[in-house]
Amino acid sequence: MKATRSSRLVALSLLALLLFTPPLLLLFDHPTDWGISALPLTVYLIWGGLILLAALILETGDAD
């Protein structure tokens, strides 16, 4: 039961590490139509999504 939750959290940490690597983030470092960079919006959306996934992992009960 706890092994499943901890393995999911490890996988989420690895996903976060992958998503916040500079080569991937630099794909979004270009000006938008409004003249600002899309990078800060991308970072905050990824960050919020990771927090949401962590909350879902920690708050949902295991079916075991």
What is the global morphology?
elongated
The biggest beta sheet is recorded as: none
Q: What series of H and E elements makes up the topology? A: HHH
Structural class: mainly alpha
Low-confidence runs of at least 5 consecutive residues: none
**Average residue pLDDT:** 87
Rg (C-alpha, Å)? 15 Å
Strand content: under 5%
Helix content: 55-70%
Extended strand count: 0
Tally of alpha and pi helices: 3
Keywords: Membrane, Transmembrane, Transmembrane helix
Protein name: DUF3311 domain-containing protein
Descriptive account of the structure:
The protein has 64 residues and is an all-alpha fold. It has a domain at 20-54. It is 67% helix and 0% strand. The protein contains three helices and no strands. The protein is elongated and about 45 Å long. The N and C termini lie close together (7 Å). The model has no long low-confidence stretch (mean pLDDT 87).
